[in-house]
Fold:
Amino acid sequence: MGFGIHGITIQLYEQTQTGVDAFNRPIYTETAVDVDDVLIGEPSTQDIVDGRNLSTRKITYTLGIPKGDIHVWEGKKVRFFDSTFQVVGKPEQGIEANVPGPWHKKVKVERYE
Structure:
């Protein structure tokens, strides 16, 4: 059963601790990994209002994450459309078996400058 809708490949920046600094704080290296079939959509009016009310952030896009994805999205940077974005808040996730279609998680992002 095909849906006729396909997402794009985006880059998710994962962090790996590579050491500690002179104050014993962790040092991280970022590595871009490709995530395929991610839907890019406009945020709802409520998403924009909630983002501004809670953190003065402006939600730019909402990402639909495919079922089976195991990446950690909270607090990460992502890249698509030749721009970098920051994930805002925690992903909203449904139970894979109960959500129709190939996507079950929603991630909100803001432009990262």
About this structure: The longest strand covers residues 26-41. The two ends are 40 Å apart (CA to CA). The chain is about 10% helix and 50% strand.
